[in-house]
Amino acid sequence: MILGAGKLQLNCIKRAKELGYEVVATDYLTDSPGKKIADYEALADTFSPSEVLREAKRFNVDGILTVGTDQPVLTAAIVSEELGLKTLLDSETAKRVTNKKLMKSIFKKENIPTTNYVEIPIDFQSDEISNLKFPLVVKPADSQGQRGIFKVYSEDELRQCIANTFSYTREDKVILEEYYENIEITVTGWALEGHSYILSVTDRVTFEDDSKIGICVSHEYPTIKFKNYHEEISEVTQKIVTAIGIKEGPLYFQMFIGEEGLKVNEIACRIGGAYEDEFIPHITGVDILTMNILDVMGENIDTSILKEYDFVKDNKLLSIQLFFAKDGSIEKMTDLNKVRTFPGLINAGYNFKCGDYIKPIENATQRAGYAIIEGSTEEELKKNIEYFFDNTKFENDKKDNLIIRGKRGHRY
């Protein structure tokens, strides 16, 4: 059973079927794309252990996992324990990696560097935030995709937006933290017997304007902070794995690097939503998606390549463009088969089709598509990215290209 049947779960559903498993695609929608290719479909809220348990029993499933989404990690752990199935995380550990309040409290207790923060209710008192310095970032403790996240410069602004933040949480308090000017990085890896193996460290490039805070537009490999920080990144990653109690499975950690050094933003224990299942094997030879599926199903996995890979020695150059588009109706699109012949392009995909109407950007769920692009040099990679955006179009009825142009982030 795969929790989630959206675009981010398609590769997982396809791979599981290729490995010979029958797949139950599960979410609360009836028309999710993953349900069109799965063997079976189940209608259940992936945030609800009771609903997922009901469907897991109905289909007598042998394993449960999710990719590309945070909260169902906890659901998978709870239901797997209930059914006696293998789970890479026990439910207590899963809570620690899916609830930012628990997560941040452990960071603080274990002296893992993170931003100053408090937990506040919707009707907070002024003295509850008096020790924090504006600007501040308010976020739900149990959501993702940059939903309900705002950067605020005053208490009045905070009070104006906090109800929106609470609309994306099931908790009675949200996280309020000091904004830290930074280069954000993403660490992807795998835990094995409590030891962390790093596979990639990318720059997580986001929109620059405050209204779209945290919404990612590209991942750039390797991070520009690699030379000065790779040792500290390794040390902090292992410290997190030990402090949280992560024994086995995928790692997806987000960190900030700024004037005060490295600080941990938040962590997850699932394959990321930036097509890591596609680009990680390309740069490392480690097929993390197949490993994840086989591991959950109780199969033996070959970890030798994981132990042999040294991320410090890799010299590949890669850009994962997670592009957006301006609002409007799509009348014509560049054929994807043509796009996949572009120089340096490893793979690409669209999240819309002709006739669709693209709404204004509010969060990461409105991403228009992606392109994984490589180059043998920085100059070649930049040219390949430019070629992609010069020749890839979502046209409206006026023949305007709606795609928002991307670039090699933090390199100009």
Description:
With 412 residues, the chain is of the alpha+beta class. The chain folds into four domains: 2-87, Rossmann fold (3-Layer(aba) Sandwich); 116-178, 2-Layer Sandwich (Dna Ligase, domain 1); 183-316, ATP-grasp fold, B domain (D-amino Acid Aminotransferase, Chain A, domain 1), CATH 3.30.470.20; 319-395, ATP-grasp fold, B domain (D-amino Acid Aminotransferase, Chain A, domain 1, 2-Layer Sandwich). The chain has 13 helices and 19 strands. The strands form five sheets. It has an eight-stranded antiparallel β-sheet with strand order 12-11-8-9-10-13-18-16, with helices on both faces. α4 packs antiparallel against α5 and α5 (91-98) crosses α6. Residues 104-297 form the ATP-grasp domain. It holds the Pfam family LAL_C2.
Give the CATH superfamily of the largest domain.
Answer: ATP-grasp fold, B domain
- What is the spatial order of strands in the main beta sheet? 12-11-8-9-10-13-18-16
| Largest beta-sheet characterization | 8 strands, antiparallel
Shape: globular
Q: Structural class of the secondary elements?
A: alpha+beta
| Beta strands, count | 19
Low-confidence stretches: none
- Strand residues, percent: 15-25%
GO molecular function, one term: ligase activity
Keywords: ATP-binding, Ligase, Nucleotide-binding
Domain ATP-grasp: 104-297
Protein name: Carboxylate--amine ligase
